[in-house]
Specification:
Elements: H1 6-15, E1 20-26, E2 29-38, E3 43-50, E4 56-64, E5 67-72, H2 77-86, E6 88-92
Antiparallel strand pairs: 1-2, 1-6, 2-3, 3-4, 4-5
Length: 93
């Protein structure tokens, strides 16, 4: 069995997150996170802002027939993946 790609790991992690706005914790900081789904579930958008104003994360993920395609918004894919890997939900709504 092969190791999942970065995009596959992010795609699976996004499915575990609630839709809409929620507070999360990642990399030792609290975040305001918004996850939206578009095109009948074919794409996800996630935008997160650290509550202390120190950082920002934004990504689009497209669920294509050949597999997920991760498109970070003007930041390295490694930063997005590390954020998502460590993200836990503190409070929904």
């Amino acid at each position: 069995m092969t190791e999942p790609t970065r995009a596959e790991r992010v795609a699976a992690a996004l499915l575990r997150l609630p839709l809409g706005a929620f507070r999360g914790r990642s990399q030792g900081r609290d975040w305001l996170v918004v996850r939206t789904v578009h095109a009948g579930g074919a794409s996800d958008k996630l935008v997160a802002r650290a509550l202390d104003g120190s950082d920002y994360v934004s990504l689009n993920l497209y669920r294509l027939e050949q597999g997920p395609l991760l498109k970070p918004c003007e930041m390295p894919a490694a930063k997005v993946a590390a954020f998502i890997d460590d993200l836990s939900v503190i409070a929904e709504g």
